[in-house]
Structure formats: structure tokens, C-alpha cells
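Q: My labmate handed me this sequence with no annotations at all. I'd like to see what the chain might look like in three dimensions before we decide whether it's worth expressing. Could you predict it?
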Amino acid sequence: MIELRSQFQGAVDVAATPEAAYALVCDVRESGRHVSGLESVEPHGEDAWRWLTRKVGAGKVSLYVDYTIRYTRDDAARTLRWESLPGLGNSELHGSWTLTPTPRGVRLALHNDLTLRMGIPRLLKKPAEVLFARENTRILEGYLQNVKTTLEGGDGRRR
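A: Here is what I predict for the chain of 159 residues:
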């Protein structure tokens, strides 16, 4: 079993109220509709959700992410944090949304630290790391842009 790790930090300025932006990112199911490649996001007890992505791959390396996380809101600070529940899925994740008012709306900052456990030969670790980092960054950059599109009056949800 090997572990692959990908960290992401990104932000986007949005012409929307902080309240509208915070409501969207705190609505886990609706927020999840803005993530490309998402197979499902389902409730798993109080303030916890299971996320499962579609498989992506190149050659003999096929990746998918399966994790269950618990959310903690800080409404006064407009921050939403998440941590993996141990022993569920093939991945561990922690991260946060932090919203900061700006003169034209709000800045949404996303931090994600993802570790994926895979049963592949060590020989394939390097190609898997490259694919994993590239896909994670592509998905999360798209997520930020899709949320921005919706908050600015369009429809950034993925079908």
C-alpha cells in the first residue's frame, strides 16, 4: 500500500455577499454539485458526509477518492473546516473554506490536504503521484471557478 499526498490552496474573489457565499459552501450537497468528477456525496451521520469520486486513470494507474469527513462551522468567522473520520474510505482529508469580505463582495479561500492510499506496485508510485497531483489541482481549481459562476448569477453546477 502506498500513500499519495496532494495539498491545494486557492482563492477567488466573487461579486456576491459574504452571507450568500457562506450559505453555499456550508450546504455540502449543493456545494458538492460544483465539483467535477464527483460520483456522489451522501450524509453519514451528524455533520458528516461521504464523498466518492469517479475513477480517472492513465495506463495501469487508476485513481478514485473515497472519504468521509465531519464538518465544523464557525459562523462568526465565516469558516468551514473538515476532518476525515478514521477508518472510512481510501483517503484522509482535512481543509477549510475561509471567507473574507472585500469591497466588491467576498474572497473565498480553499485549503485542502488530501492523502490517498492505493494498492499499486511501488514502481508505479511516481506516475501515480503526478496524475494524482494534476487531477486534484484541476478539480479544485474548477470547483472554485464553478462556485464563483453560481454566486455571480450563472450555473456552475456539474451534471
